[in-house]
Amino acid sequence: MFISDLKIHALIKAGDLVIEPRLHDAHDIGPFSVELRLGTQFAEIGGFETSNLTVFDPLKKDFETKIQSCFHTKSIEIGESIILHPWKHLIATTLQFIQIPSNLCAFIFPRSAWTRVGLFVASSIVSPGFQGKLTISLNNVGEIPIAIYPSIRIAEIAFSQIDSPPLLQYNIKCHRGRCLLSTLILTLA
To answer: Which of 6, 30, 37, 123 is deepest in the core (most CB within 10 A)?
Structure first.
């Protein structure tokens, strides 16, 4: 069950849940979610011709080195845009820094307005105890390029209470594929 806006406000006020910066003028907290804004850090995949990578195979011993060589990072200023071409993929950070207490987990959902124009924001799970800017995956499944800008509303995050703190706390190295991409973005943030 998701927690309500009343509980989200109370957790933020108590300092148990951190979401910064807050965009108070935009009414960023909905009935059970908080709007996430696109950050300024991006990574796009390319460069296969120089990596000798023909397939993503995480069981190969040099997989992490090869995949890192395929990502090109880019930082853009608020007010500038980045173009996401049809059938291309970007990884981005959120504008907000998030700190989730150990008794909550969270779910990232796409905004339906973006889905209607072909921009798919992948849904994902955020572990209890997470701290940092979130990494989100953007895919243009439409037929025309889409200009996206840092600070636009890109997704929503909803929180759910878990029945007890987990035995294993959040660790960025606990998921091999996720670790590599998160580390790439988080080192820029």
So the answer is: 37
Q: What's the 3-state SS for 66-80?
A: HHHHHEEEEECCECE
Domains of the chain: 5-186 (2.70.40.10)
Closest to 159 in 3D by CA, of 184, 189, 134, 187: 134
Task: Name the H helices within 30-103.
Answer: 48-51, 63-70
DSSP letter (8 states) at residue 26: G
Q: What is the pTM of this model?
A: 0.81
Span 41-62, mean pLDDT?
72
For residue 68, give both structure tokens. Answer: 């890192």
CA atoms of 84 and 86, how far apart (whole Å):
7
